[in-house]
Structure formats: C-alpha cells, structure tokens
Amino acid sequence: MRRFKVKEVLSETAPGTEMVVKGWVRTHRGNRNISFIALNDGSTIANLQIVADAAKFDENLLKKITTGAAISASGTLAESQGKGQRVELQAEEITVYGEADPNSYPLQKKGHSMEFLREIAHLRFRTNTFGAIFRIRHAMAYAIHKYYNDRGFYYLHTPIVTGSDCEGAGEMFRVTTFNPDNIPRNPNGTVNYKMDFFGRETNLTVSGQLEGELGALALGEIYTFGPTFRAENSNTPRHLAEFWMIEPEMAFYDDNDNMDLAEDFLKYLIRYALENCEEDLEFLNNMIDKGLRERLRDVAESEFVRITYTEAIEILTKAGVKWEFPVEWGRDLQAEHERYLVEKHFKKPVILRDYPKDIKAFYMKLNDDGKTVRAMDVLFPQIGEIIGGSQREEIYERLKGRINEMGLQEQDFWWYLETRRFGTAPHSGFGLGFERLMLFITGMSNIRDVIPFPRTPKSAEF
Ligand code: 4AD
Ligand code: MG
Question: Is the CB of 255 under 6 A from ligand 1?
C-alpha cells in the first residue's frame, strides 16, 4: 500500500482508495465504540480524520494515541459522514511510532502565547500557526529563486566569513580560533592576527553586496540569498542578529531601474503567496491578523510612491505630529517617521531616495549636489524598511575618497576598488530582508516568529 500525504488525500484522492498515512496526532476523541483521530503530517494545515472502530483495535493501543504522538494508519478512504471534511480514513491498522505523554507534552491546549512558543521552538513547528509560517517561508524562498532564474539572474554564493565590513557600521561578529585566555600578541601588545586561523582579522558577513558587485561586473545580473549577521544591540520586533537577505546586483542599471526591479520583485512575491499559499494565508488571516489578505492585495496592486528624502523631511515637518525622535534634514528616519509616511500620509508603500550621504554607506553613488547619494529604501506598511539599496559609486577616485572620508581602511577594499579601475560600469542593487518580507506576508508582529530559530541579543538557544 502506498503512503499518501494528507494534502493529496484531502484535495484529490477518491473514496475507496487504500492507503497508508503517517503523521502526528492533533486530537483524539470519541467513546468506547469509536475513535476520531485528527492527523497532521505537515503537508497542509488541514488534518485528516481517521476513524477507528474500537472493536478492531487493542484498547491499550488506542490509549497511546494522544495529542502529539506519531502514528501510521492504513485503511480505506471513505466519504465522510461528519461535517467539516470531504473524506476520512477508515482505519484497519494503526502503529504508534512515538508516544507523547499527556502529562508533559507542552502543546496540549490551543492558544499558547507567542512568547511561550518561542521557548519551545523545537516543538512550535507542530502548531497550526508555525506550520503555516514555515510552509509560506519555503514558498517565498522558492519564489525568489524562480523570479530571478526566469529573468536570467545568476545565484551567486558570496562568502560568510569575510575580512571587510560592507556597511561600515562595525556591527560584526568576530571569527577566530584564538583561545580567549591566551591570545597571541605582538611585541607592542597588539593582537597578532597573523597567528589566527586565516592569518588576518575576519568576521561574519553583514552583507554579500561587495562580492555580489564583483560577480555582476562580469555575469551581468546576479543575486545572493544567504544568512547575514549583525552584532547590533537592537532588541526590537524587527531586528535579528542572524537574518537572511536577498541581494540582487545588476550591471548597467541606474537607480530608477533599481527601483523598478525592487517594486516588481516585491509585488511578484506577494502575488505568489496569494496564489500558492491560500490555505495557510486564510488561517493567518483568521487567527493572527484580520486585515492580512486585504493588505497583501492592496500592496500587490498599488503603485509605490517615489519621493526624495528631502521631500519626506518636508512632509514630516509639516505633519503636526509630536515625534519621539526629532525630524531634521541630515538625521536618519526612525520607524515612527517611516510608518507615518506609509500608513498615514500616502497609505501605500513608499520608496525614499536620495538620502544625505553622511547617513548612508560609502559605496553609494554621489549625486551632483555633492550632498546626497543615490540610495533608495522601500518602506512598507506595518514593517517600515523592507529593502535598502542604491546605485553604486563606479568612479574610482570618488569611491576612494568616500572610503577615506568614512574612516575606512583603503587596503581592506583593494579588490573592490580594482573593479573601478578595470572596466568599471554603472551598476545598482539592493537587499531585501527575508524575515521582514515574511513579517509582511504572514501578518506576524515579531520577527522572532518568522525564522525557525531566532538569534537575538542574549539569546541563541537551539
Ligand atoms: O539596509 P541594509 O543594511 O542594506 C544592506 O545591507 C545593503 N548591503 C543591501 C544592498 O544594497 N545589497 O539591509 C538591507 C535589508 C533592510 O532593508 C532590512 O529589510 C534587512 O536587510 N535588515 C534586517 N533584517 C532583520 N534584522 C536586521 N538586524 C536587519 N538589518 C537589515
Ligand atoms: Mg538600510
């Protein structure tokens, strides 16, 4: 007998089919004559009802079929008598692989808090909510590869261990094999990195962009999709110390081409979720955020607003709102400002461009005004910044000047600078935070709940 996945059984299998199903028990109810077992195998949010005639089974076996237990059941699919399902499995045989003691299995009741479920992240996959989230996360990862593959972009694997700080913010995790109690030192007392594993200072990457640019300046259009790390002490519902980023980089794209791609890409991903993750989205819409599907449709159909940073400062100054953080040309915008623009003022996603050079990274192309750079941030309702990107400075002297101006070490970027000496070309790119996207798509409110095992300040369990 073939093993069927529950998804297949519920959607397309004819009554009368003989089958084996395997999964985890969600509930077991009934009486002395008959048992109803709701089985979930992860293939879909829906459960398959298994009906077991008590006369056919050992009483002790039926007792072991409790919430959380792993079982296998074989039998014949039948049209369901009860409400709520098209078909049910009339069981002939049941095997219990693993029991789950009702007195200690933590997922007995529904309605656990997200905080509690985070503490049992090894088991939270077994709830409806997290099943839905991680199926959607998979679908989004697949859609990202499909989007770029269909458009001739190459997936480039950039290194995780690097010697450079792409964002220049110094928020890096050190990579070393030194024994902290016995670090080799130079005669003058400084650390002797020549003795370390790589013979130099290294860290976990904050972004694959710089290496991505090297690829784009030969392959044309590339994208990265990998883990990135930030040792910033931000304990917010939008920040992780380890998050995944998608970074396309395109030769011969200017900042407008870059914005067009970012907008098209985001809308594609939202449409993909609406079309391919219907059941899971319906669940999240009902249980987590009643406005979810409508917001997804709205954003997929809206035309994003594009304004300059300077225009945004004007709007915010005239807003008549008492801000927690001051609004002033030259200062970075805070979440409250971003969300005001998106949720109150425009009621649409907003792309902010041409930021002051001093609040952005060294690699961004300087505008003719000498004060602003060709940066662009995409701001989303509920999320704030979901994408950050820019046209890159392709002029050797200017780039070198910016590296020095920002107090970075020119020799750390010699290879990056060389691409501006040999066949330099205009190019652009951006980074989409995968978990920020997931927050938007699922309607969840804490970024710790859209990645399987979150890493945040003072927390790296599992
Ligand atoms: O704006 P960021 O720092 O830009 C870069 O890293 C560029 N090198 C990208 C590029 O141009 N190729 O980060 C890009 C995006 C942000 O818009 C946000 O969505 C996400 O990455 N992000 C984070 N997500 C979760 N936790 C954090 N600590 C994040 N920091 C940035
Ligand atoms: Mg940014």
Answer: no
